[in-house]
Amino acid sequence: MEPIFSPSSDLVGWIQNGEHIFDTSMNWVAFIRNGHAWSAFTGNWLGPVNSGCVLDQSGKVVAWQQNSQISGVMPPMRPMQAMMAMRPMRPMLPMTPMRPMRPMTPMGGWSHLSWDNWIRQ
Which domains does the chain have, with CATH numbers? Predict the structure, then answer.
């Protein structure tokens, strides 16, 4: 389990094996297929997941993983709809990581979407 942080360095979730995204209460909120995140609630495309950065549909950073180079991408093309993933078993809650330093603003800026708005698209 790898922690995911907001632009202000708050813990917002966890990525498990590069396949599933959980919130801080270990609720399954998204799955990752072919480099893109998809909502576990609606099956809607949320945006790319690129080099430790969780991006919105316009390619701007919504959240990031520690030790990743925080950067957005050009607006991506909408991928083909992914098949809904099977709900994974609820993992045990990992230890809360130390809060990292607040990162510099990435080129192109941060997403206007909050983590909660992003996962509920």
Answer: 1-73 (2.40.220)
* Structural contact between residues 29 and 22, judged by C-beta atoms closer than 8 angstroms: yes
d(CA 6, CA 69): 14
- pTM score, two decimals? 0.93
Distance of alpha carbon 8 from alpha carbon 23, whole angstroms? 16
Give the Cα separation of 54 and 110 in Å (integer).
Answer: 11
Q: What's the length of the chain?
A: 121
Quickly list H helices, the chain: 115-119
Give per-residue pLDDT as tens, 55-80: 999 999 999 999 899 999 999 999 99
Give the H or E element holding residue 36. Answer: strand 36-39
